[in-house]
Amino acid sequence: MTVLINGKKKIIDNNFSIIDIVKSFKVERKYLAVGLNGEFVPKQLYSEIKLKDGDEIEVVSPHPGG
After folding, report:
1. Which one of 8, 23, 47, 61 counts the least CB within 10 Å of its CB?
2. Which tens digit of pLDDT belongs to each residue from 31-54?
């Protein structure tokens, strides 16, 4: 299936959850925030929410230097 991750089309497996996307960023989870289709996703739900074709995921992390 195809999803958008930070504005870029990606093809992923059908059983992917948000945690699978977060792991691909290779940054500690505590430093990331995730939005799914315009809604904030609490960290405790990352493993539970399965992605669907066409979902839009935004993964953000703080960057030093403002």
Report:
1. 8
2. 889 999 999 999 999 999 999 999
Q: Contact 59/22 with Cβ under 8 angstroms?
A: yes
Domains detected in the chain: 2-60 (3.10.20.30)
DSSP 21: H
| Per-residue pLDDT at 66 | 56
The token duo for 45 is 């739900």
Task: Name 44's Cβ contacts closer than 8 Å, sequence gap at least 6.
Answer: none
